[in-house]
Amino acid sequence: MSQEFYDAEGGDGDKSIAENFRLISSALVSLRQMHAGTVEPTTTSAYMLWGDTTLGVIKIRNAADTAWIVVAPLLGSWSTPPKKSISFADSPYTISDGEGYFLEIDCTGGAVTINLPDCATNGELHMGFYKSDASGNGVTINRAGSDTIEGATTLMLAGQYNDARLRSFAGTDWLRVD
Predict the structure, then answer these.
(1) Where does residue 46 rank: exposed (0-12), middle (13-18), buried (19+ CB within 10 A)?
(2) Are 53 and 60 in contact (CB under 8 A)?
(3) How far apart are the C-alpha atoms of 161 and 104, rounded to whole Å?
(4) Contact of 75 with 63, CB cutoff 8 Å
(5) What are the pLDDT digits (tens) for 30-75?
């Protein structure tokens, strides 16, 4: 899939008409395909969309053009982020900037710690958490920096089938939306 970038305002003037035509054609294909591919586009801009075919998600560039924010799965429901399974072996698991997931968490091997990304950096991000096992081990979801999770520093999921959906709104607080 094409991820061509074409700067119509600038250039070195040394390109042939055929080369300019090729670049414009590739850039139009990129727009039509939403910059889809396995690696992020080399040239980015604020609010640019990218279909990350490796993770199967649609990402948008933040306002500062410094990070990608996951907004939806490429296939499936817009209301549910892509699913990812986490276990004790992955703990502590730190969610990267722009990485919106529905995390299915298995604590059979031990307690699992999840570290949230910074709210302000990530804009509006939707996360889901689900404890799938019946063990006595729990899930601790930690804030980043001085952020809060509905005023608290952590959120606990103790029992099987306990779940939570959190959403940040580019502030300093994760809100529970379940």
Answers:
(1) exposed
(2) no
(3) 10
(4) no
(5) 666 567 788 888 888 888 888 887 767 788 888 888 888 877 767 6
Are the CB atoms for 73 and 38 separated by under 8 Å? Answer: no
Q: Tokens 């809060």 sit at which residue?
A: 148
Per-domain boundaries in the chain: 17-73, 83-176
Provide the sign of the torsion angle of the four alpha carbons 146, 171, 116, 104, taken in this order. Answer: positive
Residue in the block written with tokens 């940040």: 168
Does this model's pTM top 0.85? My answer is: no
Question: Amino acid letter at 4?
Answer: E
Is-contact 116 174, C-beta < 8 A? Answer: yes
Q: Are 4 and 35 in contact (CB under 8 A)?
A: no
Q: Going by CATH, does the domain composed of 83-176 fall within 1.10.1040.10? A: no
The helix, strand and coil proportions of the chain, stated in percent and rounded to the nearest 5, come to 15, 35, 50
